[in-house]
Amino acid sequence: MKEIFEKFNSLNVMIIGDVMMDSYIWGKADRISPEAPVPVVRVTKKENRLGGAANVALNVQSLGANPFICAVIGDDPEGNEFLSLLNTQKLSTEGILRINARPTTVKTRIIAHNQQIVRVDAETEANISEESTRSIIKKINTLIDSQNISAIIFEDYDKGLINKNLINNVVELAEKKNIITVVDPKKRNFLDYKGVNLFKPNLKELKEGLKIEVDPAKSGEVEDAVNKLRTQLGANAVMLTLSEHGVFISSDEGKKHFPAHKRDIADVSGAGDTVIATTALCLAAGLDVFKTAEIANLAGGLVCEHVGVVPIDKSRLLEESEKLESYK
Hints:
By secondary structure, the chain is of the alpha/beta class. The chain has helices at about 1-5, 55-60, 75-90, 130-145, 165-175, 205-210, 220-235, 270-285, 290-305, 315-325; strands spanning about 10-15, 20-30, 40-50, 65-75, 95-100, 105-110, 115-120, 150-155, 180-185, 200, 235-240, 245-250, 255-260. The protein has a single domain, classed as UDP-N-acetylmuramoyl-L-alanine:D-glutamate ligase (3-Layer(aba) Sandwich), CATH 3.40.1190.20. The protein has ten helices and 13 strands. Helix 9 (about 290-305) packs across helix 10.
């Protein structure tokens, strides 16, 4: 296990997806506004963090690999701040495309007394233009040619970057270059990821994407739904995350269910980002899909012990993974 984790350090991983900036405003709410029945928050602290597909990149980086983000942002002050955050984190900006008249996605959370009062989203969900799609595909091709990419993660938040044309181009190129492709999907492009190596929806996304009802407590329903999805996508593997019910994976090698590990859950935010990052690196390092699912399931649980969105701690994940091995 230690050798596998050390192998992460030599891997280059591309993340194609919707990036955003998570903005936090902390304060104290001691009174109600005289203007409306809402609390008045007296600000004590502000902070901006990388979010969305950029948080997947932070998880890849935290695990020791070298991430390359391919995404679009606006040509606006928020976009400048986003690039500044990338530079601070020592993340490459080579794959970032700036688009005039398109806002950088910013999610602002106002928190008082450790409770979120409101979230304000500044964004557009409109698809990028064909010209912008061609530009981002060109950046993707250039990075693949120059950086010896081992895995590609599609991190889809339905914010307009990813479309069928982009997916088809990237998956076709990845097949030619023997690059692993993994997907964290959303509703809009759900059934467009044909022929990827691993597709990782959660239960809500599965039900919306296939327009069916699935009871996670009934293994037969889960298995039937996953088999249906694998058939439609032609994917090598589908890994379905089921929150407190763990992870179910079906692949050419068979199927298996991994129950969730008992944790003191503080916050589930960002767990999916950690799971897809861990999955991509484990597969790229040569692990089979079942061992990959087991470690990714472990990683998702570990980050839920922390308040807020935090990347995975590599040494802690290795320690827990080695414990799992010793129990067998």
